[in-house]
């Protein structure tokens, strides 16, 4: 029984040190090098809320100022750190059949001062809300999957407002870009950085953009991109909507295939594949429409596909199924690593917080590959389970009573100062 519960915490620790040693090289000052390690460890900790205060307390600092400085004022390049994370992922999870997945996620906000916030549709909320949106790039391979890169969506209400830009510290070089344009930049950065990948997957927001699809073909990247039922494709019967194509298919055109494994079994759907030889362009390759039908409800989903070489239907189905890996990554980073718990309004601080969350998630994804053998009766160690084990076995600090009391005093003193300030301000306007 003891063997069934054996984990290699030492190798987890070595892997963490490898990643952090690389990241720390981006920091000139020794204080920042120590703090970034403590910050990532705090993100991995089971704190009820993650912010600079709680992470500083977890690290044993005397106050939150050091962590706030790391995120807001210290000199370091978050894009360079994400490049380090990409190289780490390439070494640990890289595979020739790797899949790049693009999707956006929203953080609900109150007020109008947080960079990028406005009333806009949020898939997280399922409706129009006051929120930020960010386009994320994730990497999925047979070895695992992780978030990889990010771009904050800056609406025109922000990009065309110099005063708001200046207040939030938006760099002058940042102009308005659509979500598909942001996704293209992220993908091209990953490809230029040497990340091994063969496919790209995304939802309708990206499948409906012909410029993104053309860019992927120019890089010889196959894609399985969701499209709307109104998407039009050239067929032997003329240009038809995707739902018209589906309506004209014979019964024998559908095949029952699994889009991958899930917690409750294989994810079986009915699938149909329609080749589109008339869609050939300068990039050559093979165009097609892929249609998925829910076996219970009959609901249809449509995908526009392209590959440099012919591929089997099962392969396209597998790529379509891997798109959901980014949703798992969003859930893991929001519930366990504080992706949406930042309290930063400015451009630089937002990107730094998100970058370090991505680094923490990449470490966890890579560490799950360390224990390659899973005993009978247990599932493989997940990212969430590894986070719990790693904190308990490797980074849990020995807390002194004096530290706990010192932080209680610090919080209460800060709250007293804030209270006095509020009363003094009120006294200037109230009788």
From TrEMBL:
Domain Transposase IS701-like DDE: 26-232
Superkingdom assignment: Bacteria
InterPro entries in the cross-refs: IS701-like (IPR039365), IS701-like_DDE_dom (IPR038721), RNaseH-like_sf (IPR012337)
Pfam families tied to this protein: DDE_5
Residues of the signal peptide: none
NCBIfam families: transpos_IS701
Name the UniProt record assigns to this protein: Transposase
Highest classification ranks of the organism: Bacteria, Bacillati, Actinomycetota, Actinomycetes, Micromonosporales
